[in-house]
């Protein structure tokens, strides 16, 4: 089994309602709409966006990380209009043949099963196409929506990592979840 996670081209995925595709500069406005909402960024290591330049930088960072084989982030677009309403993806850990999953969605679309549909599809891609052995997620303790999503997808809690990461000026406890192949 290879533990190189570089892909020759960006894999587009399709679900019943969604297209999971690479984001481009044309999506910057839509990405800005997602991250300029404090409800979305409150459980993220990113500050709430105040300028479109931050969304343009996100597109560039995602492309670089994909090119370097460090990770992949799909833009989530609805099939009906192809407008990006969120994203989901992996940061690879080649040595362990594992990945960390991350995601966020514009609040207008919360609680409609959209992230369940998107993440279920990328989990399958990760296990079946990328040969992952397990996938982890790290969640801030009061992020109920994210924990519920992970539990619904079959992840199990491994407990709390005390003061595990530093962002937004302080250390944060994170609950780690895992899903084995
Ligand atoms: C976490 C997030 C992606 C969930 O997306 P979503 O599309 O609303 O999730 P789904 O509709 O697929 O819901 C999945 C499950 O979680 C539950 N759920 C979702 N939001 C919830 C909430 N606020 N409170 C309680 N349960 C919630 C749903 O009811 C569903 O379970 P059910 O089918 O058994 O009822 C979304 O809330 C979000 O973008 N939050 C801000 C960004 C973020 O926190 N990212 C993750 C950082 S770790």
TrEMBL record:
Protein name stated in the entry: N-acetyltransferase domain-containing protein
Q: Which Pfam families match?
A: Acetyltransf_3
Q: Which organism is it from?
A: Nostoc commune NIES-4072
Q: Which domain of life is it from?
A: Bacteria
Domain named N-acetyltransferase is located at 18-181
| MF GO annotations | protein-N-terminal-alanine acetyltransferase activity
One GO cellular component term: cytoplasm
